[in-house]
Amino acid sequence: MENILLLEKGVCDLYMHGTIESSTQNVQQTFKTALNDSLNMQDIIYDKMAAKGWYPTEQVEQTKINNVKQKFSSSSQSSMQ
After folding, report:
1. Which residues of the chain have pLDDT under 70?
2. Residue 78, pLDDT score
3. Whole-model pTM over 0.85
4. 8, 67, 68, 81: which sits with the fewest CB atoms below 10 Å from its CB?
């Protein structure tokens, strides 16, 4: 399942680049649709793996989340100046 998840993530990456580089609306829409379908599939695979305990996640303290938010918020503001 891990290999399938990694493969699906790679497919998402390819479709995203295809969407960005599309030269016409029809091609872009086709890539967007394929990307959305692949993202949904990736989510389903992840959920199945998590339900079986094959993709463990850890809870992070809210203070750590706030610190990361602040770090990226301040760095993005300084790069805009």
Report:
1. 75-81
2. 57
3. no
4. 81
- The DSSP code for 24 is S
CA angle 45, 51, 52 (to 5 degrees): 95
Identity of residue 73:
S
Q: If you write DSSP's letter for every residue of 30-44 in order, what string do you get?
A: HHHHHHHHHHHHHHH
d(CA 56, CA 75): 31
**Complete DSSP assignment for 47-67:** HHHHHTTSS------HHHHHH
pLDDT, residue 50, reads: 92
Largest CA distance in the chain: 47
